[in-house]
Amino acid sequence: MATTTVKAYGAAAATEDLKPLDIQRRAVGTADIKIDITYCGVCHSDIHAVRNDWKGSKYPVVPGHEIIGRVVEVGNGVHSHKVGDLVGVGCMVDSCQTCSPCKQDLEQFCENGATFTYNSPDKHIEGKETYGGYSTSVVVNEKFVLRIPKNLDEAGAAPLLCAGVTTFSPLNHWKVKKGDKVGVIGLGGLGHMGVKFANAMGAHVVMITTSPEKGKDAKRLGAHEVLVSKDEEEMKKHHNSFDFILNTIPVGHEMDPYLALLKIDTTMVLVGAVEALKPFHGGNIIAGRKRIAGSLIGGIKETQEMLDFCGEHNITSDIELIDIKDINTAYERVTDNDVKYRFVIDMKSLK
Fold first, then answer.
1. Helix residue ranges, H only, 162-224
2. Regarding predicted confidence, which is higher, 337 or 198?
3. CA 58/CA 121 separation, integer angstroms
4. Contact between residue 165 and residue 306 where contact means Cβ atoms under 8 Å apart
5. Three-state SS across 70-106?
6. Same domain, residue pair 289 and 323
7. Is residue 117 located within the same domain as residue 223?
8. 32 is in which domain, residue-wise?
9. Is residue 311 domain-resident?
10. What confidence tens digit (pLDDT) does each residue in 40-68 have?
11. What's the pTM value of the predicted model, to 2 decimals?
């Protein structure tokens, strides 16, 4: 297949900084859309992939799965988008489309393996991995290209493609509704989106944090209460009172204090910790028929529902806009929890 050379930023090894490099993009096929990338969010997963924290990285790694851009070319079989449209691409660019999860619009659970936006085997360029949004353009199958509501700030919309759907999906799947008491644990890139979504769904939102100083910001974002998890007396007051808890803590942690907060027959969903959890007491879920569940991004249909919900409620991520040359510093700051609440790259700075 014919290819085109485009500018990008990537890492040649786990121990190296991200640097400018050239990559190959495929020509536009019948069902493809070519996107001129305007903004790309910086996800903690990007850092894990670059540094090979999950032991599966193939180099060079070009990260970026929170992509916003304009359509500049469409295949002759494309009817969903046209040149000039504002669109997004999230964590996936392909799936088998034939397995049971794919047929249920759950492409993230594709039984034959979804093709992720970067660091997945590229079905179109033999022997290559997919390259992400830290680049000037990308070519994607139309089924994986999303419509961005016109009223949303373009840069602020970028993190919706991962952080947004990661937090919207469990709130949506477990049917959080008006009047529910919802806890959001952790006020970071994911947690701040969880607070915004739960508030917009009509829930009574409690920000659960170890840091009292985050309380003011949590309320600005839409939390009605702040619960400091280190305060045992305050935690006891909230025992057996939550209808749903969204747990965004990114590392292994003690579960028992949070399980005590759930009502009978309710759920805590993990979206952050992709490593071993600390042991928890079985009695804390048995005694209340409580559930611990997990959730991974969302399918394409649900991601579009999330974007439309954001358009309706004017929800975007709180961001800090950076130039591509500052990406390595941004990685250090993300690792140090020094960002409110997501970095987004202005991709004009690459051109």
1. 163-173, 189-200, 215-221
2. 198
3. 9
4. yes
5. EEEEECCCCCCCCCCCEEEECCEEECCCCCHHHHCCC
6. no
7. no
8. 3-162+317-350
9. no
10. 999 999 999 999 999 999 999 999 999 99
11. 0.96
- CA 218 to each of CA 183, 213, 227: distance values in angstroms, whole numbers, following the listed order: 12, 10, 10
Residues 45 and 158 in one domain: yes
Residues 338 and 221 in one domain: no
Mean pLDDT, the chain, whole residue set: 96
Query: What residues have CB less than 8 Å from 315, skipping those under 6 apart?
Result: 160, 164, 196, 197, 200, 309
Rounded CA gap, 115 and 149, in Å?
25
Q: Encoding tokens for residue 149?
A: 């509501």
Total domains present in the chain: 2
CATH number where 282 lies:
3.40.50.720
Roughly what angle, to the nearest 10 degrees, separates helices 300-313 and 189-200? 70
| Three-state DSSP class for residue 326 | helix
| 300: in domain | no
Q: Are residues 171 and 143 in the same domain?
A: no
Same domain, 179 and 270: yes
Q: CA-CA distances (angstroms) from residue 221 to 214, 315, 318? A: 11, 10, 9
Burial 109-148 (b: 16+ CB within 10 A, else e): ebeeebbbbbbbebebbeeebbbbbbbbbbbbbbebbbeb
Asked if residue 212 and residue 156 are part of one domain, the reply reads no
Q: Look at residue 2 and tell me whether its pLDDT is greater than 90.
A: no
Tens of pLDDT, residue by residue over 112-158, are 999 999 999 999 998 999 999 999 999 999 999 999 999 999 999 99
Q: Which residues pair with 143 in a beta bridge?
A: none
Q: Give the pLDDT confidence of 62-121 residue by residue, as tens digits.
A: 999 999 999 999 999 999 999 999 999 999 999 999 999 999 999 999 999 999 999 999
Question: Cα(340)–Cα(187) distance, rounded to whole angstroms?
Answer: 9
CATH code where residue 54 lies: 3.90.180.10
